[in-house]
Amino acid sequence: MSDTTSNQMWGGRFAAGPDAIMEAINASIGFDQRMAAQDIAGSRAHAAMLGATGIVSPSDVEAIRKGLLTVLSEIEAGTFVFSTALEDIHMNVESRLTEVIGTPAGRLHTARSRNDQVATDFRLWVRDQLDAAEAGLVALMKALLTQAEAGADWVMPGFTHLQTAQPVTWGHHMMAYVEMFARDLSRVRDARARMNESPLGAAALAGTSFPIDRHMTAEALGFDRPMANSLDAVSDRDFALEFLSVASICAMHLSRFAEELVIWSSAQFRFVTLSDRFSTGSSIMPQKKNPDAAELIRAKIGRIFGANVALMMVMKGLPLAYSKDMQEDKEQVFDAADNLMLALAAMEGMVKDMSANRDALERAAASGFSTATDLADWLVRVLDLPFRQAHHVTGALVALAETKGCDLPDLALEDLQGVHAGITEAVFEVLGVHNSVASRLSYGGTAPMRVREQVARWQETLG
Ligand code: ARG
Predict the structure, then answer these.
(1) Could you tell me whether strands 355-356 and 272-273 are parallel, antiparallel, or unpaired per DSSP bridges?
(2) Residue 266 half-sphere exposure, CB side, CA atoms within 13 Å?
């Protein structure tokens, strides 16, 4: 006879219950209760299949079905009492099912193990997150498109090394992020397509001797097919790692954009004004309006990429098949998912609300000799100078403007001709920032015309 405190699920071979420390390190119910809906969906699919294959009688299956619905409604209503002694969501649900329907509950775990159960639940949970990430990315891309369309011909400085390089358009800069988030979107869809296979029915690791129908459960749960190898099915966490990798790259993009918003909203730049709704004040400095949302988005990559590294480390030394180490997968993924969704939503809100300061952008675009390349190109095109020589002449003119304390368009024609006699009045046309951006018509270039084409293409794609 086993001790009355030993576990009701496996108490048969145990003489005593676990030490309190063992219970604390072992239990996952504190976090895996987030997979309750997925756990019950998996159990319902499994029970229906046990009925359809004749493994369990129709009346027991019906009792299980009804009982699971009752348990689900208790969880949704918040009246369900989660027990640490029952370790995880799987045993909490099954135990409650037993209380609700009695003996038939004991048949639910036929031809199943917690190993394939947890793999199934977690896949369903991650799949939902991929869908949420897809929606968040599309919403953010649409907000960027709105900004790009409004400012397709607003000029701003383009930077390399954070030094003024060449004028670009606001729309072009926004569309660069649309391209980045579009790659994230494609990675999300790609990961979803690859992970959408069902581990259910792999049982503990070897499959089962019962005549189960894995295609039926796979279909019921919206999976494309059952996983082909039972050892792989219970020991694979690639889907979680892919989610974390995709999330990491996306968070990196969000962080780069957030960094730009922090810089752009500073008093020194004033390129954008962030809305009050996405800023905070200072408790001591009354003039302050801080871009906290952007800063926090910038920081989120830390925990998201940290989760990716942590799960890689958990998995890297595990022999096949299941090991309890794998229980450490969930908190990392839950935290990364929560923070990715929050960051996407906050960025969407900031982009929707922010206003670009068109005049400040244009002023900045015209400073820092931003049209020096246009001047060099003009010398090549009109005076037929070799580019290297044109570069040299332009450099001399920049130095001249610097000593005079003015910008290139402010130099007198005589000054220009003093450096190269062939320069004519016509050069001033290319020294203006609007002409500069309008001339960059190459495919993928910053010309407003090209930007509008890209905006239209993405509007059509995203609908
Ligand atoms: N709570 C466990 C996990 O998250 C469920 C699977 C437990 N399986 C086992 N054989 N102990 O991984």
Answers:
(1) antiparallel
(2) 9
